[in-house]
Queue: 2 jobs
Job 1
Amino acid sequence: MSFSTPPRSLASRLWFAWTMLVYVLFTPPYWVPWMLAMRLRPTARTFWRWFRGWDHVVFTLCGFRLRTVREGASGAEVGPAVYVANHQAMLDIPALILAMDAPFVFVARGSLRRVPLVAGILRQSRCVFLDRTASGTERALDESAERLGAGESVLFFPEGTRSFDGRLKSFYPSAFRLAIRAGVPIVPVALGGTHQLLDEKARTARPGLVHVRIGAPLHALPDENAGSLSARAHAEVERLLALAAPEAVPAEASGA
């Protein structure tokens, strides 16, 4: 099966430049009041509420639209949970903030601490940084467990990196270890089409529709290990992705 990629025309490159300009121009006006709000009330809800406003501006000016389908209970009904989503492009982050109906914090790879502007936003957003070492992973899981205990949800991109072609990669086990340890459900999420609308690797973009499908919570079975829970979640994200973006799922499943 072939995979669709954004056209690398002059128009797509100009639209990418416009999208980056929108990010640069409209982030600073939100920065100062958002930081003040986070200092007064440093919670996931504060971050989520402020950035939804920013996301609406970015989506509107860049021509992105969002369609969200939730198959299970609402975020408020589910309560603290570990969300796991596929990762195709930078556009996934604002799309998820708009699509989710309950506040959460991202778990991001530690190397993003060195990325200008992005690092500052993530630090202020109560993001949990996960370094890919044994000790770094344990610290991140301990911090995430504290967030869950305080009633906040966390969101992982368990592939560990962006796929760029839309295909689902295998999952790292950290998110599933955390869910079992904390006794909270895994909520699978699939994003479809973001790599076609914004491809920062090819530096192309175009306006269009982002599909987000949020599945029903998955609870660990008695004595289930992280590998088994990861496999079940992978299969569910792949199913959701097939509904959100059928062209992104090959005839033979990629496997966990």
Note: Residues 1-6, 250-256 have pLDDT under 50 and may be disordered.
Job 2
Amino acid sequence: MRIYCTNESIENIPEGFDEKLDITNKKDIGFNFWDNYIKLEKEFSKLAIDLLYLSIFVFVADRIVKRDTQNDGWTRTIKLNVPVSDIDFWNSQKVLLTDMLNFLSGDNWTFEFRPKTVYQEQIYYSSKKYKELDKRIYDKICMFSGGLDSFIGAIDLLEYSTSSILLVSHYGGGKGTKSYQDDIFTAVKEKYMLDDRDQVQSYVVARNGREDTTRTRSFMFFSHAIAYASAFGRKTQLYIPENGYISLNVPLSGARFGSSSTRTTHPYYMKKLQTLINNMNLDIKIINPYQFKTKGEMMKECKNSSFLKDQYVNTMSCSHPDNGRFKKEKTSKHCGDCIPCIVRKAAIISAYGKDETAYRHKNLEKSEAGILNRNAFLQMLEKHNPKRAAFEIQKSGPLTDNLFKFADVYNRSIEELDKIINEVDVNEIN
């Protein structure tokens, strides 16, 4: 599919294109970056804004092009024509971009670039609201999704320093993600005496999204953080807290290489993204301080264990927290069946012995998804050979550094999971 992407209002799809995506058209894309007024040391890098827009077009295209209509039921060919501020630079990055995104989503992405003629940032900087703001000074960003890992990441950073960290969140459709982000940020703000402006919540949604296997969300999410960091005016650390098991996300079986194997923080993808940042001449370093930690170890080693224990129930780890709306549930909650929920349970039980999280299904025999995932875990645990971990972990992607450290965290994560899949009766899992 060939898609014409634009940041200026046009009525018709240009000849030769199948779709048009207009970032200024709320019927196409919900987008609030320019509504989150914040004054930093410098203006945003033009290349960083290019990357932000490109990532949003990729994310929305990912949502509107169905996989089940493809010949293999999965792999799509998507070509985007995107306006940018520097055509020569982005043409020089085509190979890197396509390699990174093909790995991330399992598709075939190609790009064409044309000159950008409209710069929304000029309107932003000239607004009265922006001019009246006080400058904010940061040198760190922590991704703050509302999940357990990002909450631990924020706690550990804030225990060290509260004055230089910007928390960056993203939410889309549904009620689940934003409400958990709000609750957790309120707790963090009160605990560490932060300002409301120390968090930005970025809203991006594909209005006509119909594909549920979105794999490019992290590219869009991280690009927001890169845009903000580009204006810090100093060397910046971009923290992306994620436990090693989920980061590697080794498929449970040969049948799960596609739909159940996301690569949102896989080390290979992170290395590609860091290379792109370096090529943009941005002094931003991606850091995942937990890449060699299990989720349970993250909880046990949190720098404020009492605060974490008091608040962890208010975090959201589930892949689809809003599914209960089909059953007319008024509030979102963890499903209890998906892989992130199962990993969460294992970590909490490992750390505390009991999990107080509210789950839609308290055990893995209450739904088809729960039964399938439990059986897949059982098969994986039965076949698991710790001595072959260095080979197993590369099924989800190549690893060029720290192979044996990744193998160790994978083996320790399997031990955490084994305790709830095998040692705890399935009907007793909270």
Note: Residues 219 and 419 are 34 Å apart (CA to CA).
